[in-house]
Design goal:
Radius of gyration: 23 Å
Shape: globular
CATH topology of the largest domain: Rossmann fold
Largest sheet: 10 strands, mixed
Structural class: alpha/beta
CATH architecture of the largest domain: 3-Layer(aba) Sandwich
Strand content: 15-25%
Number of domains: 2
Strand order of the largest sheet: 3-4-2-1-5-6-7-10-9-8
Distance between the termini: 18 Å
CATH superfamily of the largest domain: Glycogen Phosphorylase B
CATH class of the largest domain: Alpha Beta
């Protein structure tokens, strides 16, 4: 049996459920083959040398963990400036937030070359290699240049923008040509696959074949959608523990007689948090019966606080929350409970379950697993309603949610009102259909399907 090698920017201990369902699923696949998980250690060496980094190895059960340190210069240019300052905004359709600098691109290449060099020394001839996310797009090309002939797959966890936006990235051809060093490309949605194929056709003069085949730059690669899921049983079990139950009881007690709208995100401009607050304000303006009766609990956990755009977003959200509370609240009721702090994963099911409506309204998202977690956390006999952005990858699967255009504030408010007044019969019918799909395409289906296709060469 071939050994599985997983490569990602960060490495998590698969034995810890706090790492989340993705780490658990990848960990199970690694355990079955006595696999290797490779990535950045999370350590920054202030006195390190660019292009160099110390390799560390450890054991987590049957899984070997291998990590590399980065010096400050490489970390800032590769991770902060290029991965999160160029690729993240462009791939989320936000060209105006991208800061293109040649030195950062050079460091991005340099760090991928460093990772390839360190990883190559650990590889076996029959390994199967699975690379994850936008930080590591050129990794396979670097490995191939070192003589690596193992099968290598790549999965992108963020969306793929249309060709015109991709083409705005300086050296975009180099970046996208790198993907043709992989044997299989996995994307979150059919929309992402379409955008990649259209880019390859228009910019690289690719020939498009059946079953996702793309032939360009002297190579062939299969590009398909593998929508990532969650571990349904694991998350339901998490909801039965004391922490989740305590969270649920505390919220029901604190907001007795209230209908809760719940949103849980990282603080990020892609999540549509400003638009969500505008929609909630419009709900209170257009449907005044919700005043004193409905509260929005919005968790926006800290994220990339060293980046200026995120500090601006934080101040904006605090101002919007304050203005809504000032305009509509009274001594007994504050319409918005805005929390800029993380909530422990073991408590999240209780928070979701307390919400009559789950708001997942990103402006653009690769998948958004919060949408799936919210559905799984519900009481099947009295479920809440998911209001979901049509621009989240999850919308392709979760058609029984109430789909909205988050840019249309009035329509979003109208849909929230509909969710708050939906009959029990309709709520159960929608929830049952959503759960069937989430069970069929859970995180284990995702990893098994991708790895089966990569192994078989399909």
């Amino acid at each position: 049996m071939s050994r599985l090698v997983v490569v990602s920017n960060r490495v998590a201990d698969p034995r810890k459920t706090s790492s989340g369902g993705l780490a658990v699923a990848v960990g199970q696949a690694l355990e079955s083959s006595g696999g290797l998980w490779f990535g950045w250690s999370g350590k920054i060496r202030e006195d390190g040398t660019p292009g160099e980094g110390e390799l560390h190895t450890s054991q987590a059960g049957k899984v070997q963990m291998a990590t590399v340190d980065l010096c400050r210069e490489d970390h800032d240019a590769y991770y902060l400036n290029y991965s999160n300052g160029v690729l993240w905004p462009v791939f989320h359709y936000r060209l105006e937030l991208a800061d293109f600098r040649a030195a950062d691109l050079n460091s991005y290449r340099q760090v991928n070359k460093l990772f390839a060099h360190k990883l190559h020394s650990l590889l076996r001839p029959d390994d199967i290699i699975w690379v994850h996310d936008y930080h590591l797009i050129p990794l396979a090309a670097e490995l191939r240049a070192m003589g690596c002939r193992q099968r290598i797959g790549f999965f992108l966890h963020i969306p793929v923008p249309p060709p015109q936006l991709l083409a705005a990235i300086p050296d975009h051809e180099w970046l996208m040509r790198s993907l043709f060093s992989y044997d299989l490309l996995g994307f979150q949605s059919e929309t992402d696959v379409t955008h990649f194929r259209h880019y390859a056709e228009s910019e690289l003069h690719a020939q498009l074949g059946d079953d996702g085949l793309v032939d360009a730059v002297g190579a062939q690669v299969h590009a398909r959608a593998y929508p990532i899921g969650i571990d349904v049983d694991e998350f339901q079990s998490l909801g039965e523990n004391g922490d989740a139950q305590d969270m649920y009881k505390k919220l029901k007690s604190t907001y007795s007689g209230q209908r809760l709208l719940v949103g849980v995100e990282r603080l990020d401009y892609s999540k549509g948090l400003r638009h969500r607050l505008y929609a909630f304000r419009r709900l209170l303006e257009n449907y005044p019966e919700n005043r004193g009766q409905t509260t929005l609990v919005q968790i926006a956990s800290p994220s990339r606080e060293a980046v200026g755009a995120y500090e601006d977003l934080r101040r904006s959200l605090e101002s919007l929350s304050g203005s809504i509370n000032g305009d509509f609240g009274d001594l007994e009721w504050n319409p918005v409970r805005y929390v800029h702090r993380s909530v422990a994963r073991k408590r999240l099911p209780g928070l979701y379950r307390a919400g009559s409506v789950g708001l997942v309204t990103p402006l653009r998202d690769g998948m958004n697993l919060v949408a799936k977690e919210y559905v799984v956390a519900q009481n099947p006999e009295d479920p809440g309603v998911l209001v979901l952005s049509r621009f989240a990858g999850a919308a392709e699967q979760l058609q029984e949610a109430l789909l909205v255009n988050p840019y249309d504030v009035s329509k979003t408010a109208e849909m929230i009102q509909r969710a708050l007044h939906m009959s029990l019969e309709e709520r159960i019918e929608r929830h049952t259909a959503l759960m069937e799909r989430l069970r069929e395409h859970d995180v284990h289906w995702w990893s098994k399907t991708f790895l089966s296709d990569l192994n078989s060469g399909r």
